[in-house]
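Treating backbone geometry as a discrete language has practical consequences that deserve illustration. Part of our work consisted of pairing the sequence of a single chain with a tokenised description of its backbone. What the numbers capture is local backbone geometry rather than side-chain detail. For completeness, the protein is quoted in full, as a sequence line and a line of structure tokens:
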Amino acid sequence: MLRSGHVELRHTLIHIEAAISQVVRVPDDPDRQFWAEECLRSDDSDADAIRAFGSRDGR
């Protein structure tokens, strides 16, 4: 994040189970359980992200 022209890095601890529980309460999203498990419980690394999305910027 940029703040007043300086980079500021943060590390926020979250309770994964509580976050998943909150996401799956949204009634109008049929894929909510899959999304919550895939995105919030994911163990994907930065290398996985580059493999998945790197071709979009010419890598």
The helical segments are 16-24, 32-40, 46-53. The chain has one domain: 2-57.
